[in-house]
């Protein structure tokens, strides 16, 4: 095949990195999930079969973490995708200075997530000195009572959701914006000649043309939602009272804080299977909708 060798040479660094830092660790996690490995334990390494998975099945903390993951995904995925679509529609115009606005909305994506989390910790600071409390007090004309967002069991997870939506919305916006710019203008011109309003053009032209783009955005956002860790680690450490703990956070805590490497590996395997099933289900449902249409 012409150009085959140069192509493989260019792809080799990425393929090696993928093998060493993704595929190999995951295979190792699968192997360790069937053992009793615990760092510092005098017990010898033994094969225990499905024992770690049986313990997870009876672990209320693990199921609570999965529930938090599901709640986070059900809120963040549609909200972030909807806001990204709205921003992309607003920025899809050839106006002077529009490139600056696109850069401004995309900037949070390039910031390290740890830095973003630290900044939002300051924004959610308790008392009247916190920026969020101060803004809500002004908006409510002084009727707002200052809250400690990150230490309130009812507000801690929504606070992390807000941080995640703000930080990741620009990524989805850029992808949707690229999809919008790929839509042929002739379709809008034909719809306008037929007397279609802006809303009808959006519903009958824009959304159908963005179908594959939106599917990709939803799938990626769902996967990222189930990988939630950095914000939890920095902002709440899983608290208060496990209100913000997630499956990934529980896996890291089990493997490194409690040195239960086998349990942490089992959690990552279960999480991978859950994400794989959700992705497969979304793809299947969307394929069925396409066949019906």
Topology:
Blueprint: H1 4-32, H2 51-57, H3 60-91, H4 98-110, H5 113-123, H6 131-139, H7 156-181, H8 185-193, H9 198-209, H10 211-226, H11 230-235, H12 247-257, H13 261-292
Largest sheet data: none
CATH class categorisation? Mainly Alpha
Strand content: under 5%
H/E element sequence: HHHHHHHHHHHHH
Number of strands: 0
CATH topology category name: MetI-like fold
Determine the fraction of residues in helical runs and give it as a percent range.
Answer: over 70%
Look at the helices and sheets and give the structural class. mainly alpha
User: Quick check: average pLDDT?
Assistant: 88
Uncertain regions: pLDDT < 50 for 5+ in a row?
Answer: none
The value of Rg in angstroms is 23 Å
* Whole-number count of domains: 1
State the separation between the terminal residues, measured CA to CA: 39 Å
């Amino acid at each position: 095949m012409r150009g085959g060798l140069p192509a493989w040479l260019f792809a080799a660094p990425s393929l090696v990195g993928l093998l060493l830092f993704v595929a190999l660790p995951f295979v190792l996690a699968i192997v360790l999930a069937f053992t009793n490995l615990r760092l510092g334990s005098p017990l010898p390494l033994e094969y225990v079969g499905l024992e770690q998975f049986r313990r997870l099945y009876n672990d209320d903390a693990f199921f609570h973490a999965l529930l938090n993951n599901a709640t986070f995904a059900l809120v963040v995925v549609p909200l972030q995708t909807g806001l990204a679509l709205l921003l992309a529609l607003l920025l899809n115009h050839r106006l002077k200075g529009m490139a600056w606005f696109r850069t401004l909305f995309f900037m949070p994506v390039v910031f390290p997530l740890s830095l973003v989390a630290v900044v939002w910790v300051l924004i959610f600071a308790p008392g009247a000195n916190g920026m969020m409390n101060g803004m809500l007090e002004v908006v409510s004309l002084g009727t707002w009572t200052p809250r400690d967002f990150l230490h309130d069991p009812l507000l801690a997870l929504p606070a992390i959701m807000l941080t995640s939506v703000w930080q990741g919305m620009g990524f989805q916006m850029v992808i949707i914006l690229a999809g919008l710019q790929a839509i042929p203008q002739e379709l809008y011109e034909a719809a306008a000649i037929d007397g279609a309003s802006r809303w009808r053009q959006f519903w009958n032209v824009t959304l159908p043309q963005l179908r594959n783009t939106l599917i990709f955005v939803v799938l990626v956002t769902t996967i990222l939602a189930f990988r939630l860790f950095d914000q939890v680690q920095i902002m709440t450490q899983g608290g208060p009272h496990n209100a913000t703990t997630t499956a990934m956070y529980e896996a890291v805590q089990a493997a490194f804080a409690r040195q239960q490497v086998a349990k942490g590996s089992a959690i990552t395997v279960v999480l991978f299977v859950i994400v794989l099933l959700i992705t497969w289900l979304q793809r299947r449902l969307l394929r069925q909708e396409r066949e019906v249409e």
